[in-house]
Predict the 3D structure of the following.
Amino acid sequence: MSGEEKAKAKGEQAKGKGKEAAGRLVGNERLTAEGRAEQAKGDARQAKEKIKDVVKD
């Protein structure tokens, strides 16, 4: 997994968790949904990079 892509994935996951938590805290469903979507984007990026690593080996 390239270091840059790994960092992007982790960053998206962390940012998404923060948004989701903030949305729940203030009762903002839209912000909560955005947070979940951002986490999913980070998860997808991470999975894509892991597949690349498996195929490369």
Summary: The longest helix spans residues 29-56. The chain has a mean pLDDT of 92. Residues 21 and 32 are 7 Å apart (CA to CA). The radius of gyration is 13 Å.
